[in-house]
Ribonuclease Z (Nonomuraea coxensis DSM 45129), 297 residues
Amino acid sequence: MLGTSSAVPTRHRNHNGYLLRWDGQGFLFDPGEGTQRQMVHAGARANDVHWLCVTHFHGDHCLGVPGIVQRIARDRVRHPVRAVFPASGAAYWRRLRHASVFADTDVISEHPVSGPLAAIGPLTARRLSHPVESYGYRVQEPPGRRMLPARLAAHGIRGPEVGELQRKGSVRGVTLEECSEPRPGQAVAFVMDTRLCDTVFELAHGADLLVIESTFLSGESALAKEYGHLTAYEAGVVAADAGARRLVLTHFSERYGFTDEPAFVAEVRRSYDGEVVLARDLMTVPVPRRQSHSAVK
């Protein structure tokens, strides 16, 4: 959690910035102003970034792009970096991408998204409800299978034969299905500025980790709706309906301090009884361990 404030940073909360480490790749979401410095504090490097994902082009979600791009160039990152952003904001992207004079890099490829749904590799983007075009993101691992030691032993399958069974699907007439169970792929959903809408629930469905804005408490619900934001109560409703395993609240209005955190939890608890994390800058939040197929049922 590189930054957890909303439009206005505070003494304790930087503008947005979220680095997801996922299967050897780094997804940097919404680098707001100061993200490059926050990465230094967090021990993260430009080489840790493989995806640069912008939900929309309000300043608190993108003003850190120039520093990140220039750091990628300065540190001579060699691997490809995919930049994903709303196609309607391409002009803003170009201004941020080339905001000042620097020795450029060609490792960054641009992937503008448009329409209600777009998919790029493990990343899915869905259109949200905000005064400007905004997208939520979901990172999804493909489903797999979990090997069951007791069944392997019962069939006398051990050593190199286990790998052969996984690769080929059968060994000595014993099938993979006989020695394993389905393993659902893990998923992380990232939902920033939006009103409550169907797409929010679709992004969050079955997520192991749901990182979601909760800009306001319910006392400001009219203001939240006007400006296209969620309340903590609505974030809890989403998490409960979607069956999210771990809920992370972030993007807090500057009107709230740490002493208001119990009120955010109380609103969430009106509908959601799972794990709740109130994000703070430089906090590390693990993705929950995989569940077995039987646990999912």
Q: What stands out?
A: The mean pLDDT is 96. Residues 232-242 form the longest helix (11 residues). DSSP finds ten helices and 16 strands in the chain. The radius of gyration is 21 Å.
